[in-house]
Description:
Blueprint: E1 2-5, E2 13-14, H1 15-20, H2 28-36, E3 40-42, E4 45-46, E5 52-53, E6 58-61, H3 65-68, E7 76-79, E8 83-88, H4 100-107, E9 116-117, E10 126-132, H5 135-146, E11 150-159, E12 166-176, E13 181-185, E14 193-204, E15 209-216, H6 223-230, H7 244-250, E16 257-264, E17 280-282
Parallel strand pairs: 10-16
Antiparallel strand pairs: 1-6, 2-5, 3-4, 3-6, 7-8, 8-10, 9-10, 11-15, 11-16, 12-13, 12-14, 14-15, 16-17
Amino acid sequence: MKKLVVSKKYNNKKLSNFLMNNISNLSNTLFYMTLRKKDIKINGRRVTKNETVYENDEVLVYIDDKILNIEQDLDIIYEDENILAINKKANIEVTGDNSLTDIIHKKYANCGFLPMPCHRLDRNTKGLILFAKNKISLDILLRKFKNHEIEKHYLALVYGIPKKECEKLKAYLFKDSSKSLVYISDVPKKGYSKIITSYSVVKKYNNNTSLLNVEIETGRTHQIRAHLAHIGLPIIGDGKYGINSVNKKFGKKYQELTSCSLKFNFSNHNGILDYLKGKEIKI
């Protein structure tokens, strides 16, 4: 919660103007969402509109400090005139309110084109996210991802030791949007989409854990997390598909999954991004 008193400078100004200038990291979207939830009070009175404030008014804003204190410094791994690769932290969405995209848009607010993400990561998955810095690059990269011409690799710390050093897994995934969960089947079913997940063992540990290099040929929601859990190798820290007792044992709040590499396996029709053909960006 934030408690603020309106100074003479903001007398007879809009509430939004006062709050945006006095609460760090407060976006326009977050302000109006907080208004709708009736989480702003002026002199003890809950408000639902962008009202005018006056000198000495007391304003209370009920927003979780965790939301307001998201680290604003961007970990830029690679950047040129067309693309931007960011190492995303855990506990932040790629898009939406107070997201990584919001932060980037603030940083590049004076550019002619606001960088846009070309793919997604789950909120608590860390690692590389690719942004396009112009419309031409965005169209090309969206097409390349769709055509599987950008190779994506992840590092996953899992509970268990695989029987095989490497394997190409094929299965079928159903997304239940109402529960924000996906389900895996080894055989085709109505409403299920085919998924392909490959892994190779990077390292095995004495505590029954192993580090895997994972590549996905299909990019379905929660694919890696659900698919590995399905074969008995849940990702440590995964609250949805993992094992709670294991997560607690290792003291992990978020899934130990990192997008570590993007390789541009372009074929042709690359336009202004032809120079990326064969290039790999990794952390």
